[in-house]
Amino acid sequence: MTEEKKNKKNYEGADQESLQLLKKMDEHGIESSYDRYDAQQPQCGYGKIGLCCRHCQMGPCNVDPFGRGPSKGVCGADANTIAARHLPAMLPPVLPLILIMADL
Ligand code: SF4
C-alpha cells in the first residue's frame, strides 16, 4: 500500500458539504467521529451484530450465530433474546426520526 493511500481517510457516507468540513477539520488537526471510528478498529464482531450482552454481572456473554461457539449466555439467553434486549436501548436516539418519517 502506498503512503498516499495509507494516509487517505475513508469518509464513507459523508455528503459533499460534510466532506468539505471533514477535510478542513483534518487540516486543522481536529478529531472527527471518522477518526475515532478508525481508532476503534477492529471493532468487536459480536458487538457489531448485537450479540454481545453486558446486561448483568455474569457477562459479558457472546453468542455465536453460526453454531460454532456458545449458543446461549450464562443466563440461558439465546441470540434472539440478546438482540431483543438491545432494542429498547437503541431506539431512543432514532425514535424522533422514525416519528418524523412516519409523519406522526
Ligand atoms: S447473556 Fe445473560 S448472563 Fe450473559 S450478560 Fe447477558 S444477561 Fe448476563
Give a quick precis of the structure.
The protein has helices spanning 3-7, 16-27, 33-39, 45-48, 79-101, and strands spanning 52-53, 61-62. The chain is mostly helical and 104 residues long. The chain is extended, with a radius of gyration of 19 Å.
Task: Tell me the layout of helices and strands.
Blueprint: H1 3-7, H2 16-27, H3 33-39, H4 45-48, E1 52-53, E2 61-62, H5 79-101
Antiparallel strand pairs: 1-2
This protein binds iron/sulfur cluster (SF4).
Iron/sulfur cluster (SF4) binds at residues 53-56, 58-61, 73-75, 77, 82.
Please, could you describe this protein's structure?
- The chain is mainly alpha-helical and 104 residues long.
- It folds into 2 domains: 1-41, no CATH class; 44-104, no CATH class.
- Helix content is 49%, strand content 4%.
- It is built from 5 helices and 2 strands; from the N terminus they run ααααββα.
- A two-stranded antiparallel sheet has the order 1-2.
- Strand 1 and strand 2 form a beta hairpin.
- The chain is extended and about 50 Å long.
- The chain starts with a helix and ends with a helix.
- The mean pLDDT is 88.
- The site of iron/sulfur cluster (SF4) has 13 residues, from loops.
